[in-house]
Design a protein that fits this description.
Elements (H helix, E strand, L loop, with lengths): L4 H26 L3 H6 L6 H28 L4 H28 L5 H9 L2 H34 L10 H47 L5 H12 L1 H4 L7 H12 L6 H4 L11 H15 L1 H15 L12 H8 L3 H37 L7 H23 L3 H22 L8 H21 L9 H18 L8 H7 L2
């Protein structure tokens, strides 16, 4: 079967891309308004919502960037995986019930709608939308780069596309993504999540056992090979060090409650009480799917160090290279198709919230309404894809680093405003605006300026500490806000 490895993989990926087109056409018939395009009609069941939540978190960040980060830094990024599970719990406990009630209260179609309702301030709507738009560029760039890396690693094994460039692969991937997103909106994304989430859980478990049997003594031998080269890499902190890992722990733990692509899906389930069932299913799915993140990164590092595989041109190639060379062809085909599904459905989710910010929330914050929102939503989706592609190739960063930047931008701007503010009636609109602006400024000044933060501290963690401090301090030293009666009633629940 080895001689048919590449045709099998190409067939699986081709079948998935065809499925994207079919799902897009099917979702087009269900998407008749902006309410459908952005909120899936607020009619999702438990399993669809749960799989959409955990799939949004992993995506290209987890399945391409994650193994690459383990390959490059050892056990450091395991702190992302562990603390993201904590983040799930915090997100659901702090937000799931309340944000769904807020969405129902005034028929909100976006997170900035709910924020404006909570604070009674159009300024908070504008700056929340701005934060989402800027964070989407980093995170969507992650998905574009991940799609390009995976597709190129598949195509260069063929005779006709051996010299294909990363930019050409990005163009092919984005063309499919744009069709899928423009036609189906969030409806296409969440129903694809249900299929690919199940595939990735099974595939991750099979990959985990494949890695275990790559060496006679399994993970023990893998650990010993890495330890001989660099003991720190296999230690509890990896090569990043304790302070850097602790900053990731903070950012990916508490920061999980500030991710709009996850929070927004908590507004889409059919019944408020479904949240208690959605949370355990999401955590279960994430835990098993994340096995692929850790196992592939470790085994590829061991294979390179032991001379069984050439040094990778980029750490982002860890997952594609393992699948191409060491996994069973059928399993590799399934995982590659699942990778594309995870990436594209998450990219669609980011395009969706970014588009809502541009054509719904920012105009609304100035008292304007865009005519024919659904048409402009589709046009904006195309423009955002182009902008994110340019950002992905301009920065030259790894997939995981781009993903961490997007996560940190969202966390710093939205954890105080949403996760804390929706549970603390003392929080003020001025404090919310200050938290968002400070989080954005710190993240982008450090990123664009190429400033190095000491001790390996992640800039997202630093900016979140600053934004939280400002949020709490300004709220405490301001006059208590007067809440609308219906908003206060929801917050008292």
């Amino acid at each position: 079967m080895e001689e048919f490895r590449n045709p099998i993989i190409l067939s699986a990926v081709g079948a998935y891309m065809l499925l994207c087109i079919v799902v897009g056409v099917w979702a087009l018939r269900r998407t008749k308004s902006t309410h459908d395009f952005f909120m899936a009609g607020r009619d999702l069941g438990v399993m669809v919502t749960a799989f959409a939540v955990f799939s949004s978190t992993l995506s290209g960040f987890g399945f391409v960037g994650g193994p690459g980060l383990v390959y490059a830094m050892g056990m450091s990024s395991v702190w992302m995986v562990v603390c993201s599970l904590i983040g799930y719990n915090l997100s659901f406990v702090l937000l799931a019930k309340r944000i769904r009630l807020f969405a129902e209260l005034r028929d909100a179609v976006s997170l900035p709608d709910v924020v404006a309702m909570r604070y009674g301030s159009e300024a908070t709507r504008f700056f929340t939308a701005l934060a989402i738009l800027l964070g989407v560029l980093g995170y969507l760039a992650t998905q574009v780069l991940a799609m390009s890396v995976v597709l190129r690693d598949i195509l260069i094994e063929t005779e006709y596309f051996a010299e294909i460039s990363l930019i050409a692969c990005a163009s092919i991937s984005c063309a499919i993504l744009v069709f899928y997103s423009v036609t189906g909106g969030i409806v296409a994304s969440v129903y694809t999540d249900l299929i690919q989430g199940g595939v990735m859980i099974v595939a991750a478990l099979l990959i985990f056992f494949t890695v275990m049997f790559t060496y006679d003594n399994g993970f023990l031998e893998i650990s010993q090979i890495i330890e001989e080269d660099n003991p720190a890499a296999i230690g509890p902190w990896g090569t990043l060090g304790m302070i850097g890992c602790m900053s990731w722990m903070f950012m990916f733990g508490l920061g999980g409650a500030g991710q709009p692509h996850v929070i927004t899906k908590m507004m889409m389930n059919k019944k408020v009480r479904d949240a208690r069932f959605i949370m355990p299913v999401s955590i279960f799915g994430y835990f098993f799917a994340a096995l692929l993140w850790i196992s592939i990164g470790l085994v590829m590092r061991a294979l390179v160090l032991s001379g069984q595989h050439p040094e990778l041109a980029s750490p982002d190639g860890a997952a594609p290279q393992f699948l191409q060379n060491y996994a069973h062809p059928v399993l590799a085909g399934i995982v590659f198709a699942g990778l594309f599904a995870a990436i594209m459905s998450t990219a669609d989710a980011f395009l969706n919230i970014g588009t809502a910010a541009v054509i719904h929330d920012i105009p609304k914050s100035f008292g304007k309404t865009v005519k024919n929102e659904l048409l402009w939503a589709r046009i904006t989706t195309v423009l955002l894809t182009v902008c994110a592609s340019v950002f992905a190739f301009y920065t030259g960063d790894l997939v995981a680093i781009l993903g961490a930047f997007g996560w940190g931008t969202f966390a710093a701007a939205l954890v105080p405003t949403v996760a804390i503010g929706f549970n603390w009636k003392r929080a003020t609109p001025t404090a919310a605006v200050a938290a968002i602006v400070s989080g954005l400024l710190v993240n982008f000044i450090v990123k664009i300026g190429g400033i190095s933060v000491p001790f390996g501290i992640d800039v997202g963690a630093l900016s979140m500490i600053i934004s939280l401090t400002l949020f709490v301090g300004i709220s405490l030293f301001s006059r208590p806000p007067k809440l609308a009666p219906d908003v206060e009633a929801v917050m008292d629940m």
